[in-house]
Amino acid sequence: MSTVDRATMLLKQDAAIRERIDQDTALDDAIDPGNGEFGPLAHPEQVQMRVAKRALMLKEGLQPYPVHLDVTDRIEDIRARYDGKLAAGEETEDMVGIAGRVLFLRNSGGLCFIQLSAGDGTKIQGMVSKREIGADSLKRFKQLVDLGDHLYLRGRVIASRTGELSVFATEWAIAAKALQPLPALHKELNDDTRIRKPYVGMIADERVRSMVRNRSKAVSSLRRTFDDHDFIEVETPMLQTIHGGAAAKPFITHMNAFDIDLYMRIAPELFLKRCLVGGIDRVFEINRDFRNEGVDATHAPEFTMVEAYQAYGTYDTIAALVKELIQKTAKDVYGSTKVTLLDGTEYDFGGEWKQMTMYGSLSEALGEEITPQTTVEHLGAIADKLGVERDAVENHGKLVEHLWEHFYEDKLYEPTFVRDFPVETSPLVKAHRSKPGMVEKWDLYVRGFELATGYSELNDPVVQRERLVNQAHDALAGDEEAMDIDEDFLEALGVGMPPAGGMGMGVDRLLIALTGATIRETITFPLVKPLN
Question: Taking the model in full, what pTM does it have?
Fold first, then answer.
């Protein structure tokens, strides 16, 4: 059954239920539990019952989705105002109007108890009594309200006989009727539900709510630190005629108006550098990037990156900035540079961070000196001996990095700057001032994965053209991650870009580092493969 056909069938089922309700059919008789009429792809029994209750509300002139309710107080504010200040059984005359999602419901007898939850997870008890609202209203409450509904209560603030802070209702209304039932809230959500239906995760799982809040705090912290250092935030294009700024395979789309193919942004680097040319000496962007590559615990096709460039900085000054960004984020979100990961272990971002060089550490691991002059043939022989995977289009730099990753990539647990990379794999980085064949680049590793990278930025347009031509040759040879020649960028460099330090860091990866979560858990709405 196609999507359109199923949606049409569900509308027909909704209409059939409402027609029966309008004919004064009882709720239980208005539904078709076995789906004999519409088949197995129709609404399940629980959804049908909720659709029937919606229809009954409309029949009785009640709005299942009212435009406005007199919500005067937030649940979290009432908690802050009254917690610990009322004795068991004590009542006040303070009237409040609250709304929240129903997470618990006991509606037997003449007194019903409800647990309402605010969006941040703060909960409060509601009490609906026959004595206060009357028999007819209580009967309607029991008939219409389900778990998951958004419910409005107006009433007095009291403490129940057991001391539970409560709102004793004089008035109630459904604020939004939930047609889909919630999962069992006493059980832990499975990963598939949490990832495919993050809105359910936000309701049922405090970890999901915390991740959303802490991600927002982390981004705010990054912006404050940049602001403290007089950086200006700009926005660069997501759709680009030439992909560049990173070694990555792009997504391709088509623009009908111009009849041209465009690339989804893989990095904002080349546009942020144009800002340096234009005189914005300290610039940053927190942006969405797209890379058509693999998916694992630290990689996603759509992710958030922060990049920044500082005129007259170097890879040393930018390393100090990145350290400050990360440490301040940890303090702003968790109160300390020492954080507790999801597995219960502690990780400390404080103190001084370790540094090592790529060539020096690789030489130590191999027991022989590797330099920029080491031949591709020799490096390839070492890779084959160790069983290291080799690229279809390879060069000295790629082999050095693959060999280094074989020994170190997932073993650098404490924060570590790995410095001085091969020139072949770093086409946008300035040559090292004292080490021929290397560039002034570092990668920051945390808990076995790359968190950030930093450069002394290449600003010589002649050398940059040479590097991009080499990249173009690699692309023609089959390297899908190689960059194209961007003549507009080269022209901008020709106008004159000051010496600069630059950095890039995945915001999702920063959350991974701070929490121990996977990248899918840090992204509020991760891309997942459809089930159908």
Answer: 0.89
**DSSP state string for 364-419:** HHHTS---TTS-HHHHHHHHHHHT----SS--HHHHHHHHHHHHHTTT--S-EEEE
3-state helix, strand, coil in the chain (%, to 5): 40, 25, 40
Report CA torsion sign: 396, 398, 401, 403: negative
- Same domain as 313, residue 434: yes
The string of pLDDT tens digits covering residues 495-514 is 999 999 999 999 999 999 99
103, 104, 108, 109 alpha-carbon torsion, rounded to 10°: -100
Residues contributing to the annotated binding site: 443, 450
Q: What is the CATH number of the domain that holds 170?
A: 2.40.50.140
Q: Using an 8 Å Cβ cutoff, are 408 and 361 in contact?
A: yes
Which residues lie closer than 8 Å to 486 by C-beta, 6 or more apart?
Answer: 242, 244, 270, 468
Chain segment 326-363, per-residue pLDDT in tens: 999 999 999 999 999 999 999 999 999 999 999 999 99
Count structural domains, the chain: 3
The residue behind tokens 């942004």 is 265
Distance CA 253, CA 261 (A): 6
Query: Does residue 311 share a domain with residue 253?
Result: yes
Which residues are known binding-site members for Mg(2+)? Answer: 443, 450
